[in-house]
Design goal:
Structural class: alpha/beta
Number of helices: 16
Strand content: 5-15%
Amino acid sequence: MKEDLLHFIWKFKKYPINGLVTTSGEAINVVSTGIHNHLSGPDFFNAQLELNQQLWAGNVEIHIKSSDWYAHNHQEDSNYDNVILHVVWEDDLSVFRRDGSQIPTLALKEYIPLKILDTYQNLFDARNYKFINCENEFIKVDEFIKDNWMDRLFVERLEQKNVIINKLLEETNNNWEHVLFLMLLKTFGSKINGETFMEIGKSINFSIIRKLYNKPLEMESLLFGQANLLNGADEGDKYFNDLKKEYAYLKHKYNLNSVFKSPEFFRLRPSNFPTIRIAQLSAFYVKNNNLFHLLIEKDEPNVSGVLNAEISEYWEDHFNFGKTSKKSKKRVTDSFLDLLMINTIIPLKFAFQRYKGSVDNDALLKLMTDIKKEENNLISKFGKLGVTVKSAKDSQTYLQLYNNYCSKDKCLDCAIGASLMNIKV
């Protein structure tokens, strides 16, 4: 037995509507179960109950056993003074408020059908699944329920990223251009170097980036220098030495401090080396002085046209400083442009539209639907369950589903898991 099942039972009234009584014999009529609280404090706010036909309004706390009230020290917390009902599975101890008054208790053990308990236990029985709890029943869930849940997950994923964007706005004094710069850096750094790349962006006053528009040597020297990639000496590499000299000047002029941690090269393909990614991003900002308008404010951004600038000629036969390689163009690939749309442009569009007070979910949904699906092990596993993943919108929502619900056993907060318990969320 887990508390989340009791929350589920209480929230969706999976108990007999009539005939409920407290452990002390008071008749209970549940007028409103209240608002489910997922943060600290009582589990349900603003519930309404009739106890022996007298209406009470207040909060509801839920535990496995009554004695958990004291195990969690609620008797010392003023946040629990307004609890009007203690809902438990087993009543093993009388519970009192701080003022000495006893809290009515509802023990659910005698009221819950065994079918609900069996369904719940089967859902979490590790012997029944290899990937996710409901994998044997997933394909059986009504398509209407799944489709609506997927749309909600898509918006939920954007809202989570919106929290990160709001934090960056606070750090940059609401400078949207700077936030775009930081988020682009994080995406260019990928999983290996994303955080380090963002720290590089935070170490630079964005006004300096604007001043280096149309100045490729200065822009590259700034970013490479801040990334600690211009350390050491290479007398045979003129471009490296030019960058190093220019960075020394910029560092003194703007009183710069480079990041503490240098980007990683280990386990990366040459095309993803931090040197190449920094050179590519540098080229974008050398070519464009108003990327936020071009990528975020426009309804349909020409991402390929804007973010496909040619990088310095030096990199045509280099992946790292001082080491020549076979000559090749180092333009960003279409698949990487898709990643930029998924991880940076669409989340920023959502955040900016919300900031302005008008979010066009349909347009954002279309942008994501027009992008090819992501290919990874997780999406492949959902495919084996009979799931059809057509676009990035689908792959992003299934990632959200797995990371926020399946992997955390939050099945009763998921429309799919709840439907298997025969209830809508």
